[in-house]
Amino acid sequence: MDSLAAVADLIGPGNVLTAAEDIAPYAVDWRGVYRGVPEAVLRPGTTKEVSELVQRCAAEGLSIVPAGGRTGLCGAAVPLANGPRSVVLSLERMNRIRDIDTRDFSLIAEAGCVVQNVQQAAAEAGRLFPIQWGAQGTAQIGGMLSTNAGGIRTLRWGNARELVLGLEVVLPDGRILDDLRRVRKDNSGYALRHLFIGGEGTLGIITAAAMRLQPALKRVETAFVAVPSPDAALSLFSRVMESGAEVIAFELCGGFTMETAAKHGVGLRIPLPLGSPWYVMLEMAAAHESIPLRAILEDTLGAALEAGEASDAAIAESEAQRQMIWKIREDYPECSRTEGPAVGTDTSVPVSAVPKFLKIVEHELKTRWPEGRMAAIGHAGDGNIHVSLHAPAGMMDRPAWVQRAGAMEPMINEIAVSLGGSFSAEHGIGQSKRHAMTTHKNPVAMDLMRAVKAAIDPTGRMNPGKVLP
Length: 469
Ligand SMILES: Cc1cc2nc3c(=O)[nH]c(=O)nc-3n(C[C@H](O)[C@H](O)[C@H](O)COP(=O)(O)OP(=O)(O)OC[C@H]3O[C@@H](n4cnc5c(N)ncnc54)[C@H](O)[C@@H]3O)c2cc1C
Hints:
By secondary structure, the protein is of the alpha+beta class.
């Protein structure tokens, strides 16, 4: 970038990174699969600075790759390996919670706020910021919104999109779209914010968001349940949903998945013996102390055991035990990495189709890659099941396994889509799922997406090579 000195004047020399070792963390994705080196990493501190930087990049013909916590799983926050000249624009310094209004049940946070810090700030104000997933200690609000993240509580409060009341966005020409309002009803034309939510930085840079809060949870009950099959899990799901309690999480894990967590998870204690083909982790909550949540959970699980929907169950007896159950879930992606190479999916189907989906997938994988080891884990309560095929035990050569088993991903995408589901449930498209856009995305939808991109980013400088094939 020729005008680095001028940019340094604007945002401070310490916020223009150009040394190879400083840039290195921004040049590779979380999985270590995608690499691309930017000319510089720019770290603005205000919306005005973002706007100014965007204009200067435009003047120099530089592409911009916005970056949050860089925990995305589709290679969306790193430049293309052989792409156009680009800078990474990291929002990490824009980490202020601008306002919390408890009576409005809302807050305004800047894009660089770490999600967990927003959760904590809401809790300190006696409110709940409900989204939750394994990377929340690193992922940022801007990344969360740009990927429309889901996580374990989608079944109760929806994806990130559902939390948003208003956005502040810097457009590719540097203009600021100020729609940071907390109003709950506004039918004055197109809801433009929804273009940027899930836009993966291809249409503009989110700098702040007004988001909904919920009443704090006063009671929470969590159970770890062994179930004989996904069919049984689905029956259990209906049972807990009909129990009268608010169900805020319902996760399904396969037996091999749990063995992998037990093998590699540091300090993890699995509450039930290994050996069950499937496990469910579920959580109920109430916003008032007087709700007899424990009794509801015990009755529900008792009935499920009697009906054969569950073979064993453990209820968390303390906050530490509750956290341990969720630590198993949240640490699993790291445990899976340690176990060795795998090819995976981010598939979803209607909740009622989860058992059929898993039956077909299991059969196809066993038939085509009998040497592979199938792992399944997911947010069964919203129909999002991540299926992975691990290389045979001891095989650590990732490229070789990808070459051998890479066809598994499109095959499972196809199964999900044929059951009315999606090949991209919650992680987005980035670089890794663009091929599936060509195969599965409705052509009319693709036309509209291209038209939107051309209208907002006519020179194509916002995160090129991502989302659109
Ligand atoms: C261990 C682990 C578990 C995970 N579990 C889940 C899960 O359960 N559910 C789920 O949905 N995801 C999950 N993810 C994926 C990931 O955490 C989410 O996609 C997250 O929302 C990404 O946030 P980030 O700040 O890290 O974004 P980044 O990875 O930095 O960026 C992601 C995308 O957003 C764009 N972007 C970032 N900031 C901005 C901005 N301010 N304006 C415009 N564009 C921007 C980037 O260009 C990129 O396209 C998991 C990831 C890990 C590593």
